[in-house]
UniProtKB/TrEMBL annotation:
InterPro entries: 6-hairpin_glycosidase_sf, 6hp_glycosidase-like_sf, Gal_mutarotase_sf_dom, GH65_N, GH94_catalytic, GH94_Enzymes, Glyco_hydrolase_94_b-supersand
Entry-linked Pfam families: GH94_b-supersand, Glyco_hydro_94
Name the record gives this protein: Cellobiose phosphorylase
GO terms under biological process: carbohydrate metabolic process
Domain Glycosyl hydrolase 94 catalytic: 305-726
Native source organism of the sequence: Anaerovirgula multivorans
Lineage: Bacteria, Bacillati, Bacillota, Clostridia, Peptostreptococcales
Superkingdom per UniProt: Bacteria
MF terms (GO), sorted A to Z: carbohydrate binding; glycosyltransferase activity
Domain Glycosyl hydrolase 94 supersandwich span(s) in chain numbering: 11-291
Keywords in alphabetical order: Glycosyltransferase, Transferase
Length: 818
């Protein structure tokens, strides 16, 4: 069954059936203020930390048809009483004549028709403001006049979100609501926890006069709370109770008497949900958003932001589905992951204070550097603040307080307390930022390390370059019996938690790529001494990987604390891991023949119609010494599931060896656009990438989960733009090195780079995968494949002719990947 369609002209996905297989969401605002909206208008909203400043109660484990966080009721007055329904479908579940949920860029618009009433509801958070605006238009599309009321409702949670679920005594005692009348004599219903009433005041108000209100859930539902959200008792009374709750489950319900609407007549209401410290000081802002023109202007500003953001990179390839993702939804998802890390999603609700992941955000930020590089730099700086003096990094931290922790490593005291890969990702992020912007001076910025003295002052600071060098040195020294990096609690694969002494082949390869990046950086900085030193480090690790880790047809993934290989033919379960193959190519460690063989093993043993599995075969039973991977059934998540984050790395590896057909084929098989025709199997939103899909060892093969906040977004975007289309920022210019399907006759891409706009047309008359014969910039031939840096605020026409195939390998085997 189809549930919607892509509207590329308006940059939306339009849901036409609210009964999606699972909840589908969209993000509004940012971690500073915002959250997500589901396809029936339910919301989870926070200001800052989702664990410590949650505003709206949203419990996704409830049935899909239950009220979640926020809704709107309409009430038609007739001779026989009231007809009450929600134009958002949930929670009344009335049969609709028309339903459309427009999933837009930073907004959701729901258009519905019930009982002759058309409702349009625009939901967004204005740029640089702290409020959810809902612009509601109610139109009588029947042939008769109708007398109608509108009752918007929100349900609050305690600011300490986890307490709401774990302490049924203390929380209700502290929740209070109070009606406030502002200077314009409009009613503003406020809510606060008793202890925070002077600092965190939630408010809910409207642009239309209200006749009554309710702030207590039990009173609103009626019958001592035994009535339901589907049919609240209070909505069958003329007015709400005007009760100011002193405890209990706080809500905000506002009664609007819209009055009689003649056929074709419309009325508009604008509601605001926000948080402030002083209602009188907030009055001026509230007053502005009561005016339709101001709301329209704020919405236009939001649309302008996204238009400017997306225009930084625009593609036109023969693959329409690829264009849909690369021009709209993929870069949008990259920005959302940059904003939220893994802090507030439908699957990670921020209750436990997971906060910002160091590894997560260091990868996420690389997906937005071509669009908003300075926002990326700000996030990179924040990450560097939680790097330790020894070069390792804290695993996650709270963005508001900058307090960090070791993540899941805290929960297993018999395992090491650090992750072996966290600190290395930041090197890639910093280098990518400098390549994109040319801001070399950033390397000189002083940033304190994480450790504090007894007065909570940083013990030591270092410039950005020093931070990167310490990342290198930590891994160089932290090695095991095979000269490979020690695993720590885990590497990128969080679920393989081996006893102390285990070694990680993944981290060895990540270290290799990081060294390559640092060698390039130091050469650019004309520091040949350090570059040569890092070349020695690189060759040493390369030798160890190839000496100890090649298993005949693929690379092993780990050595356990006894020196036994995991991800080897010797293992009956977990025999092969995808990341050991792709990353041995990405690092440049794998000689050409081994690279081809390792990738062939991935294709033969790991690939499925829905994507590449992370490992195979799956474990079937819990094994404590293997860790979390064995808690999943075979085919789920890291245990033989299709963990999408790792799929782009195989695409990159295939592009590096020149296989554009397979790189693009792997891209297409996980493109969510194609899932739009198989939603009842896939279930997730078709407009963003999920974290995982169940693998072919699982009975529900093809089922997706954990959408939006996934490292898949950044890496699939980088794989497509930098490696398949081959547009790569470098320190000295824009490198053009596409690796595309032979069937493509070419493609176009526009990229803004260093204050110049490059309109690039790539022509492939001989139907090859890779090879650039010539490049012409503004009718001038360029020597080689590097477009020079122009920085002149002008447009430049770039013609790229493919036709001279780059040799698959050179006489120096180690250079084949370049």
């Amino acid at each position: 069954m189809k549930y919607g369609y892509f509207d590329n002209e308006n940059k939306e996905y339009v849901i036409t059936n609210p009964c999606t297989p699972v909840t589908w969401i969209n993000y509004i605002g940012s971690l500073e203020f915002g959250g997500f909206v589901d396809q029936t208008g339910g919301t989870a909203i926070c200001k800052g930390d989702p664990a410590l400043n949650r505003m709206i109660k949203y419990i996704p484990q409830l049935p899909n048809g239950d009220f979640k966080g926020e809704t709107l009721y309409l009430r038609i007055k007739g001779d026989k009483g009231y007809q009450v329904f929600s134009p958002l479908y949930v929670p009344t579940l009335d049969q609709y004549d028309r339903y459309q949920c427009h999933v837009g860029l930073g907004y959701t618009k729901i258009v519905s028709e019930f009982y002759g009433i058309k409702t349009e509801l625009l939901i967004f958070v204005p740029l640089n403001d702290h409020r959810v605006v809902r612009a509601i238009t109610i139109t009588n599309i029947s042939d008769d006049s109708v007398n109608i009321d509108a009752i918007p409702v929100v349900e609050y949670t305690h600011f300490d979100a986890l307490k709401q679920l774990t302490n049924a005594d203390w929380v209700p005692q502290t929740m209070q609501s109070k009606m406030f009348e502002d200077e314009d004599h409009y009613k503003v219903l406020t809510q606060f926890a008793f202890m925070n009433k002077t600092s965190k005041i939630n408010f809910f108000t409207s642009s239309h006069p209200i006749s009554s209100f309710e702030s207590d859930r039990k009173r609103f539902l009626g019958n001592n709370g035994y009535s339901t959200w589907r049919k609240p008792y209070s909505l069958f009374q003329e007015e709400l109770s005007n009760y100011e709750a002193l405890r209990g489950d706080n809500i905000a319900a506002l009664m609007h008497h819209i009055g009689v609407l003649q056929p074709g007549e419309s009325k508009k209401i604008i509601t605001q949900l926000g948080q402030c410290a002083d209602m009188k000081a907030e009055h001026k802002k509230i007053k502005k958003y009561r005016h339709e023109e101001y709301v329209e202007s704020a919405f236009q500003d939001l649309k302008n932001f996204w238009s400017d953001y997306l225009e930084k990179i625009i593609v036109n390839t023969p693959d329409h589905a690829m264009n849909t993702m690369l021009n709209i939804h993929n870069p949008r998802q990259c920005y959302i992951t940059k904003n939220w890390s893994r802090d507030l999603s439908l699957y990670q609700l921020g209750f436990g204070g997971r906060g910002i992941g160091f590894r997560d955000s260091a990868q996420d930020v690389m997906g937005i550097l071509g669009h908003v590089p300075e926002e990326g730099r700000e996030l990179i700086e924040m990450l560097l603040h939680v790097q330790k003096r020894d070069g390792s990094a804290m695993h996650q931290f709270n963005a508001a307080t900058m307090e960090a922790n070791a993540g899941d490593a805290r929960e297993m005291e018999d395992r090491p307390q650090h992750y072996s890969d966290d600190h290395l990702w930041i090197v890639l992020a910093v280098c990518a930022y400098i390549k994109e912007t040319g801001n070399v001076s950033f390397l000189k910025k002083q940033i304190p390390f994480y450790e504090k003295d007894k007065n909570n002052k940083p013990i030591e600071s270092g410039n950005v370059l020093e931070h990167l060098k310490r990342s290198i040195e930590f891994t160089r020294k932290d090695v095991g019996n095979h000269g490979l990096p020690l695993l720590g609690f885990a590497d990128w694969n969080d679920t393989v938690n081996l006893p102390s002494g285990a070694e990680s082949v993944f981290t060895a390869n990540l270290y290799g790529l990081v060294l390559k990046e640092m060698i390039d950086l130091f050469r650019y900085l004309e520091d040949d001494t350090t570059a040569k030193q890092y070349e020695i480090y690189y060759e040493t690790m390369k030798e160890n990987v190839n000496k100890y880790c090649w298993d005949g047809e693929w690379y092993i993934r780990y050595f356990d604390n006894h020196g036994n290989p995991l991800g080897s033919k010797k293992n009956d379960k977990g025999k092969i891991y995808t990341n050991a193959q792709s990353w041995s190519v990405i690092s440049g460690f794998a000689p050409y023949e081994r690279a081809k063989q390792a990738l062939a093993s991935v294709k033969d043993m790991m690939n499925t119609e829905h994507g590449i599995k992370l490992s195979y075969p799956g474990f079937n039973g819990y094994i404590p010494e293997k860790g979390g991977i064995t808690t999943y059934p075979p085919g789920a998540k890291e245990n033989g599931g299709i963990f999408l984050h790792s799929n782009p790395w195989v695409m990159i590896a295939e592009a590096l060896v020149g296989n554009g057909d397979l790189a693009h084929g792997y891209y297409s098989q996980i493109n969510p656009v194609f899932k739009n025709e198989m939603i009842d199997q896939y279930e997730c939103e078709p407009y963003c990438y999920p974290q995982n899909i169940l693998g072919d060892e699982h009975p529900q093969f093809g089922l997706g989960r954990n959408t939006w906040l996934s490292g898949t977004a950044s890496w699939i975007y980088q794989a497509a733009i930098k490696y398949i289309l081959g547009i790569q920022p470098t320190y000295e210019g824009l490198l053009i090195n596409p690796c595309i399907p032979k069937a493509w006759k070419g493609f176009k891409i526009t990229k803004i780079f260093r204050n110049a706009t490059y309109e690039i047309e790539v022509m492939n008359p001989n139907n090859i995968n890779r090879g650039v014969k010539q490049i012409v910039v503004d009718d001038v031939f360029v020597d080689g494949q590097l477009i020079p840096i122009l920085e002149d605020d002008k447009k430049h026409e770039v013609k790229v002719l493919m036709g001279q195939k780059i040799p698959e390998r050179s006489t120096k085997n180690e250079l084949w990947t370049f």
